[in-house]
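Data card: per-record layout.
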Amino acid sequence: MLRTLTTNKHIILITYLSGICMLLPASAGQLNIQLENDGIFANDGNYTNGFALGWESKPLLSHQHRLPSSVPLLFQLQHSFRLPIMQTRSAWGAKLSQRMWTPNEIDSPEPQSHDRPYAGLLELESHSADYGAQFAQKNWLTIGLIGPKSRAEQVQKRVHSITGSTTPQGWQHQIQDQVTLQFAYEIDALLYRAKKYRGALFRNNQWEVSSYSHLALGNFKTEASLGLMFRWGGMLNKTFGRLSSHFGHMGNTSEVIRTSNIFLFSKMQIGYRFNDLSIEGDLPYESEIEIQHKQAKLALGLNWTVDNFAFTWSLNSYTRAFVSDQKSWYSYGSLTLSCAI
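The structure for this 341-residue chain is written out next.
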């Protein structure tokens, strides 16, 4: 029975990946590679590493409630889960990602019932997006696999052997295999944008303040959050909504900016988390930790687009994931490299 269930999981993942690959045009849109790691802060615990390989189509000017028939059916269906905002640029895309979480003491081979358990997550995702100068909306549909089949243990041990970091000793106690399904939706709304001015370093500078809300539903994680974003730089109206609080999402900027452009950003976010499978999933031992429902995040970073390439870097901090954690805040660095294809 267990062998049959495992086989079915593999079939589901392979079928979904094959379908996404067939939908992607051979040479269009923007390719994104994102790396996240807490090593920049000399930490190795809680959310410790993330990798995402994503693609987003060229932006398409949409005057109607429906996308043209040339757009693949999956993305047309996702596009219907949105507010009917007119005169926006629409896009769609896909992503393959892996994330992992560990306790703070990874050199211990024993189960750590009072700390976050080891957990790895492998996901395949498709998304649909509408971008405007003052309003943006995005949604994501995701299928994943948490547990040993995510291959997080092998990735972390390999990376640590290359970098000379501490070898993790407790992956045999990780969250057990389970298929995950997620749907997420996000709205960005402009609150204020100042007039352009000529700065000492860059021309046509301006600053803006916007709000965003993010909702995630699924057996991996269900949460709702609200946030404020501040941006300063050039061409803010053309890049509005391309950043996201959703992991691994980077909107296509190389297709809408043909000259060198830089903007700085900062984000503040509060939310409520109802469930988290990376903490509450099945374990081979008895865990004594309880999920922390109230959450907060902070981020500071920059985006640089030049010719057919884009570079996004940020420092991110977030509050504890479980109630009894003695550490209030954790931090990690994020780097995204993008290119038009």
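Known properties of this structure: The chain has five helices and 13 strands. The radius of gyration is 20 Å.

See the next section for split statistics.
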